[in-house]
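Quick start: read one record
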Amino acid sequence: MACSRGAASPDAHTQRRLFAASAGYCQNPACYLPLFADAAGQPFHIAEMAHICAANDDGPRANQDLSVQARGAFDNLILLCANCHTKVDKAPGAFPDKMIQAWKREHANKLQKLFGATRFDSRAAARRAVEPFLSENYNIFNQYGPHIEAARNPESGAAEQWKRKMLTGILPNSRRILAIVDTNRALLHQDERMPLEQFRQHIDDLEAFHIEGLKQDASRFPVAFANILEN
């Protein structure tokens, strides 16, 4: 998802926010192509950050009234597959800025429904919504995580498999969990708010490592979050 547009380039936080907003799919509602995949066990992505209004004054959908910083801000960016990015920039007249902004809103609305990010009347109902995602993440980690014996053998392919499971399973699931819990924040007990924020930072760290390739120590999964919304 690299972009070399100087000050109009999104910073690391904006890049992670774009990935989270896409949930791993092209944000063109007529496409929805998965942005992360693998071939013969080799994970890769085809995600490209597209400027809604051009980074430069002579680019597609240019808006000279926008500051350089605003051109690299989240509101002026959308995550697309390589094909859709090429289309919107090669034929800007057919894809005006208002249309692309509408794509982004439509994608967000559809994901909210898909993720079940609705307000529930009870903690039990909200827990039932997040539990399958927590359970799947737990099982993925136990089966493929970096602690398994195969991960000690650099020729086993375990590291590549773990990265694929992270990109296609754990990270999208975690964003679903956050969407549901944030929507139902009023149902949380006071002592659950800190684990929620710790979980949010944990996911941010994982995305920085597995998507951006930043070599840093990631925060650990907050154990208390496994019991979020339980009575």
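The chain has two domains: 6-114, 123-227.
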